[in-house]
Design goal:
Elements (H helix, E strand, L loop, with lengths): L1 E6 H6 L2 E4 L16 H17 L7 E9 L10 E7 L1 H20 L3 H11 L10 H4 L3 E2 L2 H12 L2 H7 L17 H18 L8 H15 E7 L6 H6 L10 H15 L4 H7 L12 E4 L2 E4 H14 L8 H12 L4 H9 L2 H8 L8 H10 L5 H8 L5 H20 L7 H15 L3 H10 L10 H10 L8 H15 L14 E4 L22 H7 L4 H13 L6 E4 L4 H4 L4 H8 L5 H7 L6 H18 L4
Parallel strand pairs: 2-4, 2-5, 3-6
Antiparallel strand pairs: 1-6, 3-4, 7-8, 9-10
Helix pairs in contact: 2-9, 3-4, 3-8, 3-9, 8-9, 11-14, 13-14, 13-18, 17-19, 19-21, 22-29, 23-29, 24-25
């Protein structure tokens, strides 16, 4: 390899086309106190200030770029140069020039517009094979390409209509929403316009200020250009490098490895990117989310779930890139194209698991797992979703899994072992065949509270005694009541009842002492059996009645669903008053209650037993 130190005037001024290989990461530079763009602008502003004072800008070294040139390029065409490392820098340099040009447009400085365009575009001539591509001096990777072309070709005001989701109605950019490339351009444009328009008492005109930026930037900035020889491996070198303070992410390392192997095998890496890999390259995958102790992009979690589904073993998410490379070696796919096709087959399933509103075989279990917040089972859903079995069998498998989870939760059993359960299920179904019968057989073998499948008797006994409200998270409890309501409905009931936003209501209120006499007819001084023992002179019999009611008031038998508008009006009223208001409800859960003359401990226990039995039918046993 050869290296030279060049000014940006030389680096950006030649007739050439900087091409970003497909394996490169997306544009990543950021603003903020320690952001790369903030530091770059401080350097640009400093050099411009030097020029305005009449001084010759002192050389400022801005790092290195590594390039490779494809062999046998025809004479007369625009020279293609692959950016092995340095695409963040070169892209940002072009954004600086585009921002200077945009400021010149606002200020009607045609000469500066012409100058900056010579660094952004190659002059079109008949030697070009594809002028609409070769005219650009920068040709980003597929992910950033269209947006960059819009920035290079359009006035800033037009970007509002091209990328409307990135701007507020007042024209300001949405920093946390806009793509990083657009956010970078807009930041530089605002800084440059402010600098050009500033009145610092130095009598410098806006044109002089913009010329000072160009002079300091193009003449004062130096970059080390390292050119690889034909035998140097560009992708291998890229894998060992980091950007400016921006370490390579797992997806960057995986992408590099994938396309390195594709090129080594003689496959068309651009075709693989455009045909398959691009499924992993839209903003959906960049969203940061949390799972356990990890806070990562969705694409990292997706690939982690894929590897568990594919290997049937635990994956170290902290070493995702190494885990993926190990998986690829073990599977030894016929081609990299086959490998990526195998990975992206899970994309639709993952999007359904993450986003509500999808309608496919995974939708129901996806909605359930979102309520239960159990991503640990995603690899098992992945595995089942791609098996060659009909959708009826898949739905039955998902329903059995839901029964397993709901029963364990209602019985107060823990979720700590679910990671091992997921792996064990995948291993078992891979060996025996994917069917409800085989999954049920595995659940039957699981013993011990860490993983067992509770039978009907356990569920009924536990629900009859358990304080459910406050112990079971509210979204889960609401889901259980909603499903029980749906199960109770018949052909004579209204088919569409909105319970999604319903709230959980205690029929006998939690604050019951004032309006709800005890079974013996006496009025309790408090709702707490402990407070009754310590602070009030009550008989053991009364305290026992308070303790019984204290337990039952949060049990399944005393809970129902009401609309959010009706809930506040119910308050702590007596049963006759509540009954009158609940009688207007369309829910079967409430109509059954209003058919009773009284609501006491016996009624709560009776309804709790009935609902517990219904629960075992809704979420059946093995």
């Amino acid at each position: 390899m050869d290296s030279r130190v060049l000014t940006l005037d030389v680096v950006l001024g030649e007739r050439q086309r900087w091409c970003v290989p497909v394996y490169q990461r997306h544009y990543e530079w950021e603003t903020g106190e320690n952001g790369q763009l903030t530091r770059l602008w401080e350097d640009v502003e400093e050099k411009a200030a030097e020029v305005l004072t009449g001084a010759r800008p002192y050389p400022h070294y801005i790092g290195a770029i590594i390039i490779a040139e494809p062999a046998n390029q025809p004479y007369g065409t625009v020279r293609e140069r692959l950016l092995v490392d340095g695409q963040q820098r070169i892209t940002t340099f072009q954004l600086v020039l585009a921002a200077v040009r945009e400021t010149a447009r606002i200020l009607a400085l045609e000469n500066i517009i012409t100058i900056t365009n010579t660094y952004l575009f190659n002059e079109i001539n008949n030697a070009m094979k594809i002028p609409e591509i070769e005219r650009y001096k920068l040709w980003p990777s597929s992910f950033d390409r269209d947006l960059y072309k819009n920035i290079a070709d359009s006035e800033a005001a037009k970007l509002h209509s091209i990328v409307p989701e990135a701007f507020f109605k007042n024209g300001r950019i949405k920093t946390g929403v806009a793509p990083k490339l657009l956010n970078a351009f807009w930041y530089l444009y605002e800084q440059i316009y402010q600098f050009a328009s500033a009145d610092n008492g130095d009598e410098a005109t806006p044109e002089a200020r913009l010329n000072a930026i160009l002079t300091g930037f193009l003449g004062g900035f130096r970059v080390v250009v390292i050119q690889l020889h034909e035998k140097d491996d560009a992708q291998e070198i890229f894998a060992s490098l980091n950007g400016l303070g921006k370490p390579l992410r797992p997806i960057d390392l995986i992408r590099n490895d994938v396309f390195y192997r594709a090129r080594q095998a003689g496959e068309n890496d651009q075709a693989i990117f455009d045909g398959q890999w691009k499924n992993l390259e839209d903003p959906f995958w960049e969203v940061l989310t949390r799972q356990g102790r990890f806070h990562k992009s969705r694409v990292d979690f997706f690939l982690g779930h894929v590897l568990v589904a594919e290997t049937g073993r635990e994956i170290n998410l902290g070493k995702l890139a190494a885990e993926y490379q190990s998986y690829a070696r073990e599977r030894d796919f016929p081609s990299v194209s086959d490998e990526i096709a195998h990975i992206v087959q899970y994309v639709t399933t993952y999007r359904t698991l993450i986003q509500a509103g999808s309608d496919n075989v995974v939708s129901n279990i996806a909605n359930f797992l979102r309520v239960w917040d159990l991503t640990v089972f995603y690899p098992l859903i992945f595995f089942i979703s791609v098996q060659s079995i009909d959708n009826t069998e898949k739905n039955a498998l998902f329903k059995l899994l839901e029964s397993y989870i709901v029963r364990r939760d209602l019985c107060g059993l823990g979720a700590k072992n679910y990671n091992n359960v997921t792996i064990r299920c995948i291993q078992h179904l891979r060996q025996t065949g994917c069917s409800v019968e085989m999954l049920g057989a595995l659940f039957s073998e699981m013993v011990g509270n860490a993983s067992r499948f509770p039978p009907d008797a356990d569920v009924i006994e536990r629900l009859a005694k358990r304080k459910l409200y406050g112990d079971l998270p509210t979204p889960r409890l609401r889901y259980v009541l909603q499903v029980l309501e749906e199960k109770k409905r018949t052909a004579f009931d209204e088919t569409v009842i909105a319970t999604t936003n319903a709230t959980i209501e205690h029929i006998m209120p939690q604050t019951w002492a004032a309006n709800w006499p005890l079974p013996d007819g006496s009025t309790a001084p408090t709702e707490s059996s402990l407070a009754a023992l310590i602070n009030y002179n009550v008989t053991p019999e009364v305290r026992e009645q308070i303790a019984t009611r204290e337990r039952l008031v949060d049990s399944l038998g005393n809970l129902t669903l009401v609309t959010s508008s009706l809930n506040p009006s119910l308050g702590h009223e007596s049963f006759p008053d509540k009954k009158s208001k609940l009688s207007k409800s369309l829910l079967v859960l409430n109509r059954e209650i209003t058919g009773l003359d009284d609501w006491d401990e016996a009624a709560i226990e009776s309804r709790g037993l009935e609902l517990a039995r219904l629960t075992t039918k809704v979420w059946p046993s093995i």
